[in-house]
Amino acid sequence: MHGVLKIVSIPFISALIGWFTNYLAVRMIFHPYQPLGLGPLKIQGLVPKRREELAISIGKTV
């Protein structure tokens, strides 16, 4: 019984970790829209922060 629990729990835990890391990565790319100040640090999503650069690059490509 103990071995069956391991076989079932390992894929479940791996899927949960994978889902969480993907969720966190997408959140970090797109959120927050406005910069948040945490003391001397400013945190902002990668896409909102580089919005102008991305628009210029896409415009050149098109």
Structure characteristics:
71% helix; 62 residues; 3 helices; two-stranded antiparallel sheet; mainly alpha
Description:
The structure is a single chain. The chain is mostly helical. It has one domain. It has helices spanning 2-30, 46-49, 51-61, and strands at residues 36-38, 41-43. The protein has a two-stranded antiparallel sheet. A hairpin with a 2-residue loop joins strand 1 and strand 2 (41-43). The longest helix is centred in the N-terminal third of the chain and has 29 residues, at 2-30. The protein is elongated, with a radius of gyration of 19 Å. The protein starts with a helix and ends with a helix.
Described by strand count, sense and barrel closure, the largest sheet is: 2 strands, antiparallel
Specify the overall morphology: elongated
Count of helix runs: 3
Beta fraction of the residues?
5-15%
Low-confidence stretches: none
Can you list the strand order of the major beta sheet? Answer: 1-2
The secondary-structure element order is HEEHH
Helicity level: over 70%
> What is the β-strand count?
2
Class from secondary-structure proportions: mainly alpha
Write the layout of secondary structure elements.
Elements lengths: L1 H29 L5 E3 L2 E3 L2 H4 L1 H11 L1
Antiparallel strand pairs: 1-2
Report a brief summary of the structure.
The chain has helices at 2-30, 46-49, 51-61; strands at residues 36-38, 41-43. With 62 residues, the protein is mainly α.
